[in-house]
Amino acid sequence: xxxxxxxxxxxxxxxxxxxxxxxxxxxxxxxxxxxxxxxxxxxxxxxxxxxxxxxxxxxxxxxxxxxxxxxxxxxxxxxxxxxxxxxxxxxxx
Length: 93
Known about the structure:
- Residues 5-69 form the ABM domain.
- It comes from Rhodovulum marinum.
- By secondary structure, the chain is an alpha+beta fold.
- The protein has helices at 16-31, 60-71, 74-78; strands at 3-10, 36-43, 50-57, 83-89.
- It contains three helices and four strands, in the order βαββααβ.
- The longest helix is centred in the N-terminal third of the chain and has 16 residues, at 16-31.
């Protein structure tokens, strides 16, 4: 099954435009990572600034590599203050 991260993040109003602009590139780069099986981020049509997230990676190492890349990327800087509410399953399987 791999590792699944699901949930959402809330973009601060002051960063919402920048997050919307940077998101397509973040998704493209994430989907191209070794070990990424699925990577979807969509803004909730009823709650501006809420982005639903669903990610699947082949294993915990692939998820950790994704996080390291994100932390060092433009996306990591732009979305640094987002309120993240995620659940991760499959880390111990």
